[in-house]
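Changelog note: in this version the structure field was regenerated for every chain. One regenerated record is shown below for reference.
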Amino acid sequence: MDEDKKADDLNSSSYGWWGKILKVDLSSESITEIDTLPYADRFLGGRGIATRLYWEYVPAAAGAFDPENHLIFMTGPLTATGAQGASRFEVVGKSPMLMPEGFCYGNMGGFWGPGLKRAGFDGLMVCGKARRPVYLFISDGKAKLQDADIIHLEGVKQVGTYLKQKHGKNTHFITTGPAGMNLCRNANLMTDNEGSATGGFGAVLGSKNLKAIAVKGTQSPRISDPEELKQLNRLTIKLNQREASFNPFPEDQISHAGKASCFQCGLDCIMRSTFKTRSNREVVRKCQAMFVYFSWVMGRPGEPAETALDATGLCNNLSLCTMEMNNIIQWISAGYKAGYLSDSKTGLEIDKLGTWEFFEGLCNMIAYRQGFGDVLAEGLLRAGETLGMEAKNLFANEVAGVGDGATYSAREYLMNGLLYAFEPRQPIAMLHEISRIIGYWVMNLQYPGSTPVSADVYRAAAARFWGHEKAWDLNSHEGKAMAATRIIDRTYAKDSLLLCDSCWPLMFSNHTKDKKGDTTMEARIFNAVTGKNLDEKALLKYGETIFNQQRAILLREGWDPKTDDTVAEFNFTDPVQTVFMNPEVLVPGEGDIVLSRKGQTLDREVFKKMRDEFYQLRGWNPETGCPTAKKLYELGLSDLDSVFHDPGGKQHFRNK
């Protein structure tokens, strides 16, 4: 009877999970398994589990390209259950883009994460280095390393064609293109259906001689209450219904052909779209990536808009980070105008910037490390160190270690300073929680009734989701530390459930009587899948736990709170001029006042006040920026106490 009860307890705790994480050591070619459930109990899933595994398995002194570095891929408890907006997966590892190299994370959508879960595994850890180019094939509970000589120098499209021909059309994959195999520090991981993760993780894959990870599965994880999940899915789809994605391209050249959905997702997605060209080609493009070359093409008389569309496709096939490529092009343009860069110095015909010929030449030069491209393949931050101060003085504010360092900055939206200050990379999912509702509020100001976000709806959502009655006043520091803690904790929980940033959280809706959203939906969906009984506060507590676990990793790797708990210097010195979706930089002020922060900077004393309050709310020592022993005990993280009291050597974090 005791054994039967033990089996029942295990089954009841494994709803949504298989209970198995693959661990592949490429050096020894050994494949073993780790039990998921002890990690899920403490760290929820996805980002949380991957972060803890990094803490346990990646040595602080390991380099990004060392065999000891691990690439950790994790799904969440909702993955492949049919839960809406739950098709993503998390990747964690030591990033070669950061300077110095360090812990980083990425988040990818499409079909690979659900494919891994349907193949019978919750996650995958890869370490070591293969003696020859290989790929990993995972299918219905089995994993095998296979020879990749034929494809190891190929682009992403060619890899996909090969894998689907060999293993079937329902095979999904992660790979990296020539940029990754040539260890370009800005090389992405890519999936089928145009999913990508930055951080240089494509180069880490290449450094391990691992060309691809293919998955194919027919299994589905168990769900505790399928009927309840169906009801919640219907409600989620209804609450999420909104206008179609916009088409930034000239309609006479490129038309918007519809949505491009991820696995089992019926939500209205504002991130992924299908576009049709005049030659009847249909391509999927997403969010920021579609704009990598957009402004230069649109500003080049006679250049077809298709060049901008195809520029993204070229980056994806070579696996070059589009954010980094955009910054490189800005820098080349500025350097050419300043007389610092020339055709002879770069090997480029810079006066052709905006043409397909220029972009193709630049991308190939970097991906294959040819000539000047070999310098740029180290990333702009390191290129600046090589080329000197004159080169660095031409960097735009957007240049950062990983991501765009100036998008939705603290100059316009004050609490964003705290979101940037504690992360090793641009925290775009957190920034979206603020920028999206503000963007809809601005549209409603300009065209009353065009969006559900009136001033009243915005104020109610800000107070409810951000936890402070003054959180909505973006011209005051009051309530911003509390808002930051809520946004951080919710995002960490969201990235661990693996819910999509495009639709979660549901802060507002066209389909409720008062236009207000719902803070409880994530917990209700989690409970329906897992059979547990958590509320919103419990999920936020998971987020806080994972945030503190990441804090321990950063300190162990050299993060110094006294110098690194801050934002890039330009926030304090360079006035903001415009913001995406908000060109006049409008923000809600006290009462019904509408203010513009155009021309404003972040006040140093205001930032310090917000940071001090943030430390207090977190239960951190105000002098050291480290969690107290009491806080660690409360979060079940007492095993981290030593790193906070003796974090080791400090090295300045140069990515801000």
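Spot check on this record: The chain has 27 helices and 19 strands. Confidence is low (pLDDT under 50) at residues 1-10.
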